[in-house]
Specification:
Four copies of one chain form a homotetramer. Chain A is α/β, with parallel strands linked by helices. Chain A folds into two domains: about 110 residues, NAD(P)-binding Rossmann-like Domain (Rossmann fold), CATH 3.40.50.720; about 210 residues, 2-Layer Sandwich (Dihydrodipicolinate Reductase, domain 2), CATH 3.30.360. Helix content of chain A is about 40%, strand content about 25%. Chain A contains 14 helices and 15 strands. In chain A, the strands form three sheets. The first copy, chain A, has a seven-stranded mixed sheet. A six-stranded parallel sheet of chain A has the order 3-2-1-4-5-6, with helices on both faces. A two-stranded antiparallel sheet of chain A has the order 13-14. In chain A, helix 2 links the parallel strand 2 and strand 3. The longest helix of chain A has 20 residues. At the A-D interface, strand 7, strand 8, strand 9 and strand 10 of A face strand 7, strand 8, strand 9 and strand 10 of D. Chains A, B, C, D: Pfam families: GFO_IDH_MocA, GFO_IDH_MocA_C3.
Chain lengths: ~350, ~350, ~350, ~350
């Protein structure tokens, strides 16, 4: 039984609290949040204690911490928790600054403690099935990957201003998906971003509509499309062309019911947002973390992979600003190690 | 080059005229119709001559006749045309009377001339593909067949009164499909019919909604569903459960375009009616007839099969009236020869 | 908080135990089973006590019992539990004998206690959506209902012999669905059954392939197709033709992933069996029972409806044996009350 | 009746010959080809004459010429034919050189004769339906367009060497689609191309896998994905995200038949290549040309639009080589006129 403390009692923290509680081999022991009332309320709902971060990290009975606090606290908390000997699952991104994330990576390496980054989509059953079919060689060699990821509605401009921008905040999931599916980081990134959805986003200095093309050293490419708004819901698709066929993971629809009338055939739209679409993924992600900690196995998503996704985001941000392709080696200050 | 005369210049005659003209190995030479103006107009459109039936049958230059006149003339024309040495393609049904159809069958047998019945659906590319996959053993042994056949709108009551009733007029296509797919006639038929679509149809003594269950001697069953009205178009589906899987031929839709909005996913409805859905089938049917005549091969749909479908219709009509299963041997006055 | 005792610790009992435990407003307090070890093991897994039926019924702290024991015990247990003042959720069917079920119905009426029959499919989210769209008038007046229900693999002949036969054991779910969707029982039933799947089933005196056509007094019809074997999984579909369109609830597939190769497009098959397909339905069913008991509201599925489904099964059994349509009034010995 | 001469009797010339012959208001009068035997054979098949280009252009009885010869002859033949007073339908591209195409554009403008470029995909019924739904405002303002266009198999390296490269030879269709749907040319193009399909293509100096992102002045973007090989057939899809929804035109499949077995659900793959997929489009394209000539109406696809597509191809070629976004104004030497 893994004793877990949750740092962060906001919306995503609540999702994780449920996953921790539902898993037969973990127990939510403590919750911390800068908003003490939020911590108390969430802790109470799960029979846990509201405590300070300090108390949690000092408590040898806590085996692991799940970091779901605001992005600017991630790197610090990862460093402090691993230094205190905890296993860590931290929400993405590691940090908005690639340099800061790399410092964190070094610190963690020294601690020797396991850190997993919460790229939940890898644990979506459909994406996982696509990945395993690809790895089993079902469509031969991978050639062109296409990821579609649209949110149902844009966030408020206030959020945009602290988000780090679309590439670091939203597309980072897709960068990780691409690196995961292709088994390593790309050589270079070419990105375009515009604001056509909401002028307030453009005014806040960000884009709401973006395309990034990633190229691997051996010629494979991945295209990622992001929009802050698809009024019909959360559009989450992956498609991979290989030398012997194509694999596609389609949207999960709200229902199988169809209505055919003189107006046409009306069927369901995609599930509305991440809480609906990725409910199973969050549970599977937590299961994978608990199992890896229990077995002392390698983390299913490493901190290094979190840094690689961030490097892609940094490269995409520069590329969109500069109107030119940006090599990952430029943003990393060193050559990329290609896993594949 | 097959010289063809068309008997009947109505709606379905016009469909056939186009198929004859479009085929590279047949030529529409003559058209006859009780409506002389209709015959002249259709003949003119295809560079053919408007002639009487007598003149056509007496002309040794006419190789084949396509009978598309009213149902009550079919049996007579088949007999006269074969007696005159013509090859014949006749629209379904052979006759509304099973006894009359059986007399015709005998007469044709004596003539030794080839007669094909126009069950166009066998030539629909999707149904043909289902049939060939089944015959190739792709789903093992056939167990349960389900045919859905709904018209987009009910005919006027005036038509209903001369139609012979839904089972002989509409479901006869589905009886033929079932016998064709399963390779022979069923042992018995159980049918239910009601009028819920249009009270005028009920008042005219017919049903507009019907279900027939056919049972073969070895236990295989087929279920046929008919409705005179599906407001969304022509619903034409076949589904076959076998010991190793299921084959389904779905509707052909008007378009591949989908629109996803907050209201859901809107895609196309089925093609509207038989002219749209079975355009390719009519061409393939004619091609098959011309090829079989040219090669002296067996007709792709025999007159005997036309009689078998009519026997099913007769049995279904009696079953629905009587509230009991009716054996085909009862309506035929002899045992059914089971092809399969 | 509803204190619940579970009578029956077999496969379906275990499904219900999880639903009881997962619901925030019910608590599994006790488990009884003729197999004491099974009761102990299931009780232990949920922090409940293994007790005798007698002890459970005598305990005023038990508010409700869930009957998931063998069919031949259902009617007795319903009568005893309601006499003891418990609210009851009982698995289908009420009994294999219609007469016995009617006696039970009377006894329960005298007790004044609420009894719900476990027709779980009504709580499947897709079927529920179809029903509510129909009730909202989205396709006009209902005309023809079609239910497809195939199991993935036939049960052993030993089960067949005590099952009451396909119509009472398997198709009873579909009879309930038809009555539920159309809002009342049919006037008459016409059924056909054969054995083509497994000769052992035929040898045991049952059918494995069956079709029933139900007719309502106003002309509406429902067609139910059952097979004991669809090798690809649990085929569970509902389709309803109305005066203004068609509603269809399709199968729930195992995944959204598609693979397109030179061999074609390969997508997932339906979820394998009822545990997978109806997991959500069992939870919703239990939720509905708990809510209705808490509010003193009418049961979402009444014992009377359980009797009506059984009457359909009895009529279908007779119809298939007799080769003739059977009126529900014949099997009930009285007129059917048509709810719709 | 439009008297037409066909210049070019190769594969695509044969497609056009059939379309000319099938149209009720045009007549194939003459065929020219550098391969005299090819011209003779195709002419004979359609009751036309094999003649020289000179003889054709000098013949006042010829109303229109369809240019389907090799790309390097297009611009010359357009100029000569319009100078001779003919209406022209010319296959894409106008020329491999943008400068040459612009000279041709000027010459044609002086001639005052109508010239249409053969971007057949605009006439595909599904793409046309998507376009008209978009123009009707069904998904609000257009934001992100995605075009997928994969060929079933790569051409030989010999073809690659004279093709002008993937962007000018293959993606030019998609550039036209994007400009057509969005109603004008983009401001800038960012493209990436690699060779992962066939090393011979890379060795020939071309790419076989490419992505281009087009940006309009108002922030709209279009992403085009091309591959020279999708082993399952011709993958031709368009998807358009708007402020109120998404429109998608999916692949046309070879059949509606599905087979469900324990291995999954197997359905058809896309139609194999352009002859199958765009048969209807070629007929509709020719119909549109004939109608426009007859009515003296504007050409449905103008030579200027052909030049715009070529400008996009030139910009994409430079962008992929340079690793930077290229403005259309750079390749045109002037500002783009934005139609939208």
């Amino acid at each position: 039984m893994l004793n877990v403390a949750l740092l962060g009692a906001g919306r995503i923290g609540q999702v994780h609290a449920r996953a921790i509680a539902a898993d037969g081999e973990s127990r939510l022991a403590a919750v911390a949040d800068v908003n003490a009332e939020a911590a108390r309320s969430l802790a109470a709902a799960h029979g846990a204690e509201a405590r300070t971060v300090e108390a949690i990290l000092a408590d040898p009975a806590i085996d692991a911490v799940l970091i779901a606090s605001s992005t600017d606290t991630h790197a610090d908390l990862i460093e402090r928790a691993t230094a205190a000997g905890k296993a860590v699952l931290c929400e993405k991104p590691v940090d908005l600054s690639l340099a800061r994330a790399e410092v964190c990576l070094e610190a963690v390496a020294k601690s020797g403690r396991p850190v997993m980054i919460g790229f939940n989509r890898r644990f979506d059953p459909d994406f996982a099935r696509l990945k395993s079919a690809f790895d089993a060689g079902e469509i031969g060699a991978g050639e062109m990957l296409a990821i579609t990821s649209f949110d149902p509605a844009p966030p408020p401009a206030s959020y945009i201003r602290v988000s780090g921008g679309l590439f670091r905040d939203m597309m980072i999931h897709d960068f990780d998906m691409a690196c995961w599916i292709f088994g390593g980081a790309p050589e270079r990134v070419s990105a375009v971003g515009t604001s056509v959805v909401d002028p307030a986003i453009g005014a806040a200095g960000d884009v709401d509509t973006a395309v990034a093309t990633l190229t691997w050293a051996d010629g494979r490419v991945a295209v990622i499309r992001n929009s802050r708004r698809a009024v019909y819901g959360y559009d989450q698709r992956v498609e991979l062309l290989g030398s012997e066929g194509l694999l596609a993971a389609k949207n999960v629809l709200e229902s199988t019911v169809e209505k055919i009338t003189a107006a046409g055939t009306l069927s369901a739209k995609p599930e509305y947002f991440f809480l609906e679409r990725y409910a199973r993924a969050y549970a599977a992600e937590w299961r994978a973390f608990v199992a890896a900690v229990a077995e002392g196995a390698a983390m299913p998503v490493t901190l290094g992979e979190g840094v690689a996704a961030l490097a892609c985001a940094e490269a995409a941000t520069r590329s969109a600003a500069r109107g030119a392709t940006v090599a990952l080696s430029e943003v990393l200050g060193r050559e990329v190690e290609h896993a594949a």
